[in-house]
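User: Hi! I have a protein structure encoded as tokens and I'd like to know what sequence might fold into it. I'm fairly new to this, so please keep things simple.
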């Protein structure tokens, strides 16, 4: 290339970047930038979709991993999980909208992101979002819910809530970053649907800490186990897909598969889908189906980032309860991976699954991590100004009561103090009741060793359970570790109830 052509190419790139910035979109990446950030910037600009929303959707689906073009359990491909199955044809829709071949959309990251952006924009167009509305990420909520192609409004909400939760927490994965941000999601009609994140709303009939969402009746066999068959195994699976997507797939009559329980990666939330007494179709072996209980774990076998401590602990507590209830040995004979079922063609839970950690949690033989819980009523460890009221209104509260305050343009934070035993990495979880009148973007401040970090939590949903807001480097000592600030553009009362801090 001649010097003149080089300068012309550079000038063209600069002009395009300026035009994109003027239009409110991220500039296209230069050749030196990482390919994934460039791909998201390009797709966002081409289809007028908020770049951070596109990233959050991809992260909720796949943790930004295209899995080398291999499909998920429900037939989804790539970072954006473009699906091709009997009831969801988003892959084919993406091909129609982008004019790109299906094969390229399956395997090429840049093409897949373009396809996902095109499909998401088509849902926004069907909703009637004009150019002004498209600039407000909160207005895209219903389009995100439609992208899920879920089997019910409740699952569509569960899916969209997971995407918007990531916007509040922020993302730093595979070279792609978004900062935690204040967003009020406009749920529209979905605001009235059941919140599956609130586990207490419809409890599991066999394991009350879990929620109950029944699988399609064609995806399992009604039985009377412990009379028809003895239950003597727990089989550990990995979903090869997202939590909401897996629950939706087990409700799909085309699936012909199911499991008794599904566990969420980020929080350890559990949904039961088949009664223990009934035979779920999970093991690929009729004898083992008859004798076992299947537990699915959100994620993909080749990506260790899905296997969180919260997931291990919640799943191990479930497995321990099942072993105690049915007399299953708490050993690797009674608790097996799907790959260990005779004749298995699946590899889950895979090499990234930490059996030592898991079995220690099941048996109680491992040294427990340091954990402390601080409630708003914990003497000497909670402080708040007189502007914070006290309420017992919600049954989802932690302890006897909780605190509330109106949002204002001043921090006036309620603080939780803790004695951190040593410098290191700690997981921070928060507990709050949920209500439509509570804050859509409550700021939680963590006094991390490198400076305060803030994440934003939608307190209108997901109440009555522990909710992880991330892992942080903390210094040793006794100090105010977590605060709930009133300074937010979110709407509704800001709630301060309880926090839990655990050494990772």
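Assistant: Happy to help. Inverse folding works backwards from shape to sequence: for each of the 504 positions I chose a residue that suits the local structure. Here it is:
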């Amino acid at each position: 290339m001649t010097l003149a052509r080089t300068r012309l190419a550079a000038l063209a790139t600069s002009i395009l970047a300026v035009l994109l910035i003027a239009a409110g979109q991220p500039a296209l990446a230069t050749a030196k930038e990482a390919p994934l950030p460039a791909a998201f910037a390009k797709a966002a600009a081409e289809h007028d979709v908020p770049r951070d929303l596109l990233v959050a959707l991809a992260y909720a689906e796949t943790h930004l991993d295209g899995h080398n073009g291999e499909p998920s359990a429900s037939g989804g491909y790539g970072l954006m999980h473009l699906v091709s199955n009997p009831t969801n044809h988003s892959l084919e829709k993406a091909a129609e909208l982008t004019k790109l071949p299906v094969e390229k959309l399956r395997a090429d990251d840049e093409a897949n992101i373009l396809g996902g952006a095109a499909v998401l924009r088509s849902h926004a167009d069907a909703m009637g979002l004009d150019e002004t509305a498209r600039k407000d990420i909160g207005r895209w909520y219903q389009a995100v819910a439609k992208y899920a192609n879920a089997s019910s409004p409740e699952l569509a909400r569960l899916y969209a809530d997971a995407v918007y939760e990531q916007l509040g927490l922020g993302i730093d994965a595979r070279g792609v970053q978004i900062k935690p941000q204040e967003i009020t999601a406009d749920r529209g009609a979905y605001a009235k649907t059941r919140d599956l994140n609130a586990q207490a709303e419809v409890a599991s009939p066999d394991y009350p800490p879990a929620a109950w969402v029944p699988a399609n009746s064609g995806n399992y066999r009604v039985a009377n186990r412990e009379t028809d068959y003895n239950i003597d195994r727990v089989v550990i699976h990995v979903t090869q897909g997202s939590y909401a997507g897996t629950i939706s797939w087990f409700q799909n009559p085309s699936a012909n598969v199911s499991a008794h329980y599904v566990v969420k990666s980020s929080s350890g939330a559990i949904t039961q889908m088949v009664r223990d007494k009934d035979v779920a179709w999970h093991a690929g072996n009729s004898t083992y189906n008859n004798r076992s209980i299947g537990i699915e774990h959100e994620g993909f076998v080749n990506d260790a980032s899905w296997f969180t401590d919260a997931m291990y602990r919640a799943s191990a507590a479930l497995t321990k309860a099942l072993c105690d209830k049915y007399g299953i040995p708490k050993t690797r004979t009674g608790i097996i991976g799907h790959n260990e079922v005779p004749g298995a063609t699946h590899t889950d839970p895979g090499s990234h699954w930490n059996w030592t950690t898991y079995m220690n949690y099941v048996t109680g033989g491992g040294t427990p991590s340091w954990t402390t819980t601080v409630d708003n009523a914990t003497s000497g460890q909670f402080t708040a100004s007189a502007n914070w009221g006290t309420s017992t209104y919600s049954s989802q509260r932690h302890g006897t009561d909780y605190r509330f305050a109106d949002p204002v343009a001043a921090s006036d934070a309620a603080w939780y103090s803790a004695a951190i035993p040593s410098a290191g990495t700690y997981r921070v979880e928060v507990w709050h009741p949920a209500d439509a009148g509570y804050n859509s973007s409550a700021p939680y401040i963590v006094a991390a060793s490198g400076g305060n970090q803030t994440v934003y939590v939608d307190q209108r949903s997901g109440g009555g359970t522990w909710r992880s807001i991330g892992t942080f480097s903390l210094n040793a000592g006794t100090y105010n570790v977590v605060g709930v600030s009133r300074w937010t553009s979110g709407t509704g009362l800001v709630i301060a109830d309880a926090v839990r801090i655990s050494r990772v």
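A useful reference point when you look it over: The longest strand covers residues 424-431. Feel free to ask if any position seems puzzling.
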